[in-house]
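Retry 2 of 3 after timeout on previous attempt. Resubmitting structure tokens to design endpoint.
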């Protein structure tokens, strides 16, 4: 019988190593599931990363797994916005019911076919519209490196759960940085795939289909690489398994899209990342994006406003006369009001940005293979800094000033990955982001393997994690 000590030891293994135990017959799939449930029960009351617990469903699914499957028995967690059969899809909003989803989309079907076992859902800001995971519906997730700080968002519960070792894999969705931000804040690997690289994840939506990429967040490059291959549009897609001998032309961009410099810790981390790449033989030089960054950020903020307004409209249609203020958070409502004041040509300008970026960036990437930049302008913020009740005008200014790097890849449909290479002077993780042109996920993953080998992070665990034993 598994003990909690056993469960914590298993939690220190990545998905590949956990799956290997099942293939070798050392454990069965139900044991891996039970170990994850034990870790959640022990750690999540402090971490608050789990928005929905599903122990009975997980045990039932683990017991009837067919033989085979590359990740048979490995536990994972979908985000609260992802439809998963037998679990509610609340998007951490008070407006959503607890109705159980009857089915998932092809993304979920691929992961089920690989033998993964979903053990619950992870927390997120309401509808994924904020950079910190503090929904009024709960739970407010803490950063396992410092419980006073945010794990980021919108996939903040996923980032915290993986960083703490609850599960080796958790699904994240990224419409403006929502995989890369929590990966940077929590010290894990976060890949945002490019547009049209994964099978369908959710129902059709004009803006989300343009902006959002999904992947499995993890602590190891090989787990993230597997998740990308397993959910790719090409069902025969081969997993990237090692570094490449190719030396890359890496451009370094330190300033955000509005021209502001990051804080000193972040700037130092990016310079150290650039030095590491140069020491490995890559050609590294400072560059600038070939776009009007201020105009770009205005366009992105206007599209983000329309996403919020769509959420408000959907809730209004099903509110049954109830007050919207009792169902939707102040920030979401504020986005809905802002959308009503935007001129129509603001949306036209946003789509013009979307249409022009592919050619602009393709010309840029003719001279550079990869761009290295920060993920955020500072390390993880304190909880409350970007909470949903902060005045909207203040949030519009401060939150977008914190994320002046990540939205570009969402608008352009290009891939990027956050890697946990360095930490701040106070010990908080700092993500280094590597971005490339469309279709270059394999190159980014090969580079990530190389950097992981050169500066391993596997031994770095937060205080609130399986590394510190079951008596935390």
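Retry 2 succeeded. Sequence:
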């Amino acid at each position: 019988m598994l003990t909690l000590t056993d469960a914590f030891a298993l939690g220190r293994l990545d998905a590949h190593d956990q799956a290997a135990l099942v293939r070798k017959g050392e454990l069965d799939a139900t044991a891996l599931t039970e170990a994850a449930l034990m870790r959640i029960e022990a750690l999540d009351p402090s971490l608050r990363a789990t928005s929905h617990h599903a122990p009975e469903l997980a045990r039932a699914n683990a017991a009837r797994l067919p033989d085979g499957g590359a990740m048979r028995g490995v536990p994972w967690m979908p985000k609260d916005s992802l439809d998963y059969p037998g679990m509610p899809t609340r998007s951490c909003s008070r407006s959503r019911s607890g109705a159980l989803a009857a089915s998932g989309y092809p993304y979920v079907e691929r992961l089920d076919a690989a033998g993964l076992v979903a053990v619950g859902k992870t927390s997120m800001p309401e509808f994924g519209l904020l950079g910190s995971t503090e929904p009024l519906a709960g739970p407010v997730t803490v950063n396992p490196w410092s419980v006073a700080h945010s794990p980021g968002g919108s996939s903040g519960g996923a980032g915290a759960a993986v960083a703490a070792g609850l599960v080796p894999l958790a699904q994240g969705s990224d419409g403006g940085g929502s995989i890369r931000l929590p990966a940077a804040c929590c010290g894990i690997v976060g890949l945002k795939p490019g547009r049209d690289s994964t099978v369908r994840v959710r129902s059709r939506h004009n803006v989300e289909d343009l902006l959002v990429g999904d992947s499995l967040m993890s602590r190891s490059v090989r787990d993230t690489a597997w998740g990308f291959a397993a959910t790719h549009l090409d069902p025969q897609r081969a997993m990237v398994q090692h570094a490449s001998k190719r030396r890359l032309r890496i451009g370094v961009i330190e300033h955000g899209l509005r021209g502001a410099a990051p804080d000193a810790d972040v700037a130092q981390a990016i310079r150290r990342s650039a030095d590491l790449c140069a020491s490995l033989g890559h050609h590294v030089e400072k560059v600038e994006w070939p776009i009007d960054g201020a105009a770009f950020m205005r366009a992105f903020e206007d599209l983000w406003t329309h996403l919020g307004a769509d959420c408000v409209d959907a809730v209004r249609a099903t509110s049954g006369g109830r007050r919207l203020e009792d169902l939707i958070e102040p920030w979401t409502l504020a986005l809905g009001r802002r959308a009503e004041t935007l001129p129509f040509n603001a949306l036209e300008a946003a789509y013009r940005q979307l249409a022009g970026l592919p050619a602009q960036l393709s010309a840029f990437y003719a001279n550079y293979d990869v761009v290295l930049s920060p993920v955020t302008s500072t390390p993880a913020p304190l909880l409350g800094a970007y909470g949903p009740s902060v005045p909207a005008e203040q949030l519009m200014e401060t939150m977008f000033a914190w994320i002046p790097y990540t939205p570009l890849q969402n608008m352009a449909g290009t891939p990027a990955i956050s890697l946990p290479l360095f930490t701040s002077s106070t010990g908080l993780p700092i993500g280094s982001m590597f971005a490339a042109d469309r279709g270059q996920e394999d190159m980014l993953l090969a580079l990530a393997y190389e950097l992981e080998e050169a500066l391993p992070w596997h031994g770095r665990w937060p205080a609130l994690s399986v590394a510190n034993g079951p008596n935390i």
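Attempt log closed. The chain has two domains: 4-291+352-468, 293-351.
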